[in-house]
Structures are given as structure tokens and as C-alpha cells.
Design brief:
Shape: globular
Helix content: 40-55%
Distance between the termini: 44 Å
Strand content: 15-25%
CATH class of the largest domain: Alpha Beta
CATH topology of the largest domain: Rossmann fold
Radius of gyration: 19 Å
Strand order of the largest sheet: 3-2-1-4-5-6-10
Structural class: alpha/beta
Oligomer: single chain
CATH superfamily of the largest domain: NAD(P)-binding Rossmann-like Domain
Number of helices: 11
Number of strands: 12
Bound molecules: serine
């Protein structure tokens, strides 16, 4: 098969920065076009400025670069989303519908849409949460991603678009910082541990959430996009699991490497958001359909995070 020509929206975000590099390593630098509304991240060239609501510009970039696949990552996360619900709905949902329409109009091969554990809500069973469960999300971010999944399923059924989607757990990586999410603490805690040997956590000690380390989430994303069409039996978000832990447990893992690290707790409005999500995920469908299997445990991730962050921060 010929190399795909890929466009990434939201390429300056936490996941986008790393995914862009990985896809370039796989398919060649010039075959992966990074786009974002934030043009301040270095090293993303070839890069095109893109406001996701500007469909004219999106169409032009796709045509200019003969794009065949889109990874549509541009979105506002859960905590930021609560500060401006209507704007978040507009970016997250209308942004997606615009992308889907252009994919349909121009006949692109394939599109990736990231969903999230934020689609779950207080009516969802909290442990080993199955694929098809009641979804009554509490945040506008979760609402927009739930509706987004339905639109993806609809465009596949109605127009045959080849859409692939994963419900990401909280993503942890040393390469980039998350912005405006509820799971951000699990990245910040490593920075705090290394720079100050302490961290004040905005979630309470026993709040268990599904999480995933960057190499696993990147592998899973590329894996689902490379899978043969017939392997993909769900055209809305696949449940994806790796690890689940609480702030107390990640702190204990860090203490094994940095014994004098101290965590304190000062829960804020994000506690309520986290409490509405599930604790652990049943991802048997992803394992069966496209051979998903993560590599990292909490302690293995901690060792790797600390090793790389030390180098990055010159510590
Ligand atoms: N990491 C996201 C958030 O916290 C969840 O998908 O908003």
C-alpha cells in the first residue's frame, strides 16, 4: 500500500506533538502535515496554521498537500471546557462535523477521532466498564465527545466513511504537557516530584481513574489506523485500557524512585468531574478486533518518566 498523506489537527497538543513525530518516523516527514491554532511549538514543520472552524482553509490545506488521512485531535478538554461550555461545544462538535463533511466531500481514505473516558457518567457502572453502557456525561467535553461518537457512527453507516475511534484514558508523557484536563495531575506530579520534591494534587487521594502511558497510546492509535477495514467492527469509540490508579498510588510509585517526595491534597472543581468517570475499563473488544495490548505498568511508567524528564529538564 502507498504511504498515506496525513493531516493532524491539534498537532500542538499533548498527544499531537508526539503522534506527529511517530507518524513522521513511520511514513516520512513530508507525508505528515501538522496543523494547529497554536503556532508556537517548535519542530512541527511541515506545519500549517488552522482554526478548526475555518473549513475553507482546511479544504485548501487538504487539497494542496493531497491528504488521504486525518487524525482529528483538535479539542478543548474537560476542565477548560467547563469554563466556556458553548465555545467548547462549537470547537469539539461543530469542528468534528466540519471535518467529517470535508472528508466525505473530498473522498479521503480514513479518519481518526479521539474519544475519551469522559463519555461515561454517573449512570455508568464504574468498574471494568463494558463497551456499551449508559452514557450520561457530566461535562460539556464529555457531551461533545459522546455526540461526536454518534456522528462518526452515523457518517460511517450513511456515507461509508472509514472512521476509527478510541476512548482514551488520561494520557501521561514526558514529551509534552496536557492542557485543561482532569487527568493532568498525573503528568504534573512527575514535574513537581523532580523539581520540588512535592506536589499539591487537585484530586483527592483515593480517586481512581483509567490512565495510559504515551508509548502505549501512540501504538494503539497507529494500530487501529493500520488495521484492515474489516477488523473494525465499531465505528464509535473503542474502550481502551492500560492501568488504573489513584493519586495516592502514583505518589507511592514515585516515592520508590524519589524517597523524599511528598504529596498533599487540595481537591477543586475537577474532583467532581473525576468522580463522574469510571475507575477501570473492559477493553476486550479492542483486544479482539485489532490486537490491542499495552506494555506499561504504573512502576514501569514511573521509571521511564523520571529517566526522560531528568534529561529533558537538565536535572
Ligand atoms: N484527559 C482528558 C481530560 O482530563 C480526558 O479525556 O479532560
Amino acid at each position: 500500500m502507498e504511504n498515506p498523506k496525513i493531516l493532524i489537527t491539534g498537532a500542538a497538543g499533548q498527544l499531537g506533538q508526539v503522534l506527529t513525530q511517530q507518524l513522521r518516523a513511520l511514513y516520512g516527514n513530508d507525508n505528515v502535515i501538522a496543523t494547529d491554532i497554536n503556532s508556537n511549538i517548535e519542530g512541527l514543520a511541515p506545519f500549517e496554521y488552522l482554526d478548526i472552524l475555518n473549513l475553507e482553509r482546511l479544504r485548501t490545506i487538504i487539497q494542496d498537500h493531497k491528504i488521504t488521512q486525518i487524525y482529528h485531535l483538535a479539542a478543548i478538554l474537560s476542565a477548560s471546557g467547563e469554563r466556556n461550555p458553548a465555545f467548547t461545544w462549537n470547537i469539539n462538535l461543530n469542528g468534528l462535523i466540519g471535518v467529517l463533511d470535508i472528508v466525505k466531500e473530498l473522498g479521503l481514505d480514513r479518519i481518526f477521532f479521539p474519544s475519551t473516558i469522559a463519555v461515561f457518567g454517573n449512570t455508568t457502572p464504574r468498574e471494568q466498564t463494558a463497551q456499551d453502557v449508559p452514557l450520561l456525561p457530566e461535562t460539556v467535553y464529555g457531551m461533545s465527545k459522546t455526540a461526536g461518537e454518534l456522528w462518526c457512527n452515523y457518517y460511517h453507516k450513511k456515507y461509508g466513511l472509514d472512521i476509527r475511534s478510541i476512548r482514551y484514558p488520561g494520557v501521561i508523557g514526558w514529551q509534552s504537557l496536557p492542557e485543561g484536563g482532569t487527568t493532568d495531575y498525573a503528568v504534573e506530579i512527575y514535574h513537581g516530584a523532580l523539581k520540588e520534591k512535592k506536589y499539591e494534587c487537585f484530586l483527592s487521594a483515593h480517586t481512581r481513574l483509567p490512565m495510559i502511558y504515551m508509548p502505549d497510546v501512540i501504538n494503539g492509535t497507529i494500530q487501529i489506523m493500520q488495521a484492515p477495514k474489516e477488523a473494525i467492527t465499531l465505528r464509535y469509540g473503542y474502550n481502551l485500557a492500560s492501568m488504573s490508579f489513584t493519586p495516592e498510588e502514583i505518589a507511592a510509585s514515585i516515592k520508590k524512585e524519589i524517597p523524599d517526595f511528598e504529596i498533599t491534597y487540595k481537591p477543586d472543581f475537577r474532583q467532581e468531574i473525576a468522580a463522574s468517570w469510571t475507575e477501570s475499563i473492559d477493553d476486550s473488544k479492542a483486544r479482539k478486533d485489532w490486537n490491542w495490548s499495552p506494555d506499561y505498568t504504573l512502576d514501569k511508567m514511573t521509571k521511564d518518566m523520571i529517566f526522560h524528564l531528568k534529561q529533558n529538564l537538565n536535572l
